[in-house]
Amino acid sequence: MSKKKILILCTGNSCRSHMAEGILRNALGEAHEVFSAGAKPSGYVHPKAIEVMGEIGIDVSGHESKHLDRFLDAGIDTVITVCGNANDACPVFPGMVNRYHWGFEDPPHAQREGEELVDAFRRIRDEIKLVFEAYAAGLTEAAK
């Protein structure tokens, strides 16, 4: 049986989608293939995203910013958007694709008063972790 493929989309594919990809891949292990991409890729993974993911033992330093078109014919089973713009820009994927939208603030623009930029990244990373680990637990339980 082939592994199910999950694609996480964001606009720039520089922060949220990479954090979600790393967290979901870590939670699911080898059971699924997990990817991320963007509707308008920034061309880089934000250094603060790499930093805060490293703090929880997940290395995303080898990730790259990619366009979602790369995955249109990749047999994607599930598409998860993590920002409103990507949700609006998401094309129709061929086949029976599950679609979910779980929006998160964009970390570089999410600083609250008195909060350092790295703390905004940590806060959003923790929100993403909560949602995606719960999703992974549901997939794991459903597979039993």
UniProtKB/TrEMBL annotation:
The reply to whether tRNA processing figures as a keyword in the UniProt entry is no
Which keywords belong to this entry? Arsenical resistance
Question: Any idea where the Phosphotyrosine protein phosphatase I domain is?
Answer: 4-138
Q: Name one Pfam family in it.
A: LMWPc
InterPro entries, alphabetized: Ptyr_pPase (IPR023485), Ptyr_pPase_sf (IPR036196)
An example of a Gene Ontology BP annotation on this entry? response to arsenic-containing substance
Protein name in UniProt: Arsenate reductase ArsC
Task: Give the originating organism.
Answer: Pelagicoccus albus
